[in-house]
Specification:
Strand content: 25-35%
Number of domains: 3
Largest sheet: 7 strands, antiparallel
CATH class of the largest domain: Mainly Alpha
CATH superfamily of the largest domain: Winged helix-like DNA-binding domain superfamily/Winged helix DNA-binding domain
Helix content: 10-25%
Shape: globular
CATH architecture of the largest domain: Orthogonal Bundle
Oligomer: single chain
Length: about 350
């Protein structure tokens, strides 16, 4: 299939971080979802389709989302082929992960001979009377397969041994306690009502005061919760101020994969960019690394951001990288050259950054 034909049949495309088959490292690849297969490319010189690295025939495949096999990578989708080959693909956000999973699943279903199936909503009804909350809590505590307890940041404070609302929802779905995220929220609210789980931090505490049970628990990656037992054993879990974490404590406004030019070698690499407000910071992460620490970042106070011309290679840009470029100049006169994957994405990032400078 040539480029023109592929563009006419493309269902979805964008960056995902893929785990290698032989050497199990993680690398960013440009994925193109077609009506019958999933292609992935190395993104060379700003060209999305310059180097095909592989393809996956989707007939008979199975999607697992969320996939909890990687503790430090909660945004992974697992794709298992008819021949039992496994692909692990990481998105830039929970919304993108779920969108990719839905698109791939829909494509797989369309390839089935009996593709006319009943909608999930006909089966998606949760009977809480048939769910043992004690069994759920025991499973949550399981050392090997339970909910992972980590340290979270909220508004300059760190909370120890807790989990986000989105993480618990992901876990409940993946363990088969519920069928849908809506059911998981209802079950999580019941756990909170029975004092198995307690809210931590401003966002989750405020939500818990709402009268409607289905609105008390938040399917949100920034709403924090903890096991209630920790309050009884050790007293109230107190927030510990961490001044060094202030720049990472702001509200996440936008996140996504972008290409960034290096300061020393001037080569272009895919980075996960996270834009935060209050305080305004832009951090970037190496998606191939297992840890969650940023490899760079800067305050947006006093920054200048501007789009670069698409005609030719702008001054300061190295390599044959053209189109969808923008530049950020920090208050200390450091220049960052960044490339988006489309004109629309470029303008979205520029407008979002300008609001925080």
């Amino acid at each position: 299939m040539d480029t023109a034909q592929r563009q006419n049949t493309t269902v979805k495309e964008g960056f995902l971080v893929k785990r290698g088959h032989v050497i199990q490292n993680w690398k960013a690849r440009w994925f193109v979802l077609l009506p019958d297969e999933l292609l992935y490319y190395k993104y060379d010189g700003g060209k999305k389709d310059s180097s095909l690295r592989g393809k996956v025939a989707l007939a008979g495949c199975k999607v697992t989302c969320p996939c909890l096999e990687y503790q430090n990578r909660p945004l992974v989708i697992k794709l298992k082929t008819q021949k039992s080959a496994e692909y692990f693909l990481e998105a830039c956000s929970r919304e993108e992960r779920d969108a990719w999973a839905a698109s791939i699943t829909s494509t797989i279903q369309n390839l089935r001979p009996d593709s006319a199936q009943k909608p999930l909503s006909e089966h998606a009804h949760l009977e809480l009377n048939n769910v043992s909350l004690n069994q759920v809590v025991d499973s949550m505590h399981d050392v090997h397969s339970g909910v992972k307890l980590v340290n979270h940041m909220e508004q300059g404070s760190s909370f120890k041994k807790c989990f986000s609302g989105a993480a618990l929802v992901d876990w409940l779905v993946s363990m088969g306690f519920v069928l849908t995220r809506v059911e998981a929220v209802t079950l999580s609210s019941a756990l909170m009502e029975e004092n198995f789980v307690k809210p931590m931090g401003i966002k989750s505490v405020d939500a818990s005061r709402v009268g409607n049970m289905t609105e008390q628990f938040l399917d949100d990656s920034t709403a924090l919760y903890a096991f209630a037992e920790s309050y009884k054993r050790k007293g109230s879990v107190k927030a510990e101020p961490s001044l060094s974490a202030v720049d990472l404590s702001g509200k996440v406004v936008k996140r996504g994969y972008l290409l960034k030019q290096g300061h020393k070698r001037k080569n272009w690499k895919v980075r996960l960019f996270v834009l935060r407000a209050e305080p305004g910071f832009l951090h970037y992460f190496d998606p191939s690394r297992e840890d969650s620490n940023p490899v760079g970042g800067f305050s947006l106070r006093g920054c200048l951001v501007s789009a670069l011309e698409d005609n030719g290679i702008p001054s300061g840009v190295k390599g044959n990288v053209q189109g969808n470029l923008f530049k950020i100049i920090t208050q200390n006169d450091t220049h960052y050259f960044i490339q988006a994957t489309s004109k629309e994405e470029k303008m979205e990032w520029i407008l979002a950054i300008k609001q925080l400078t």
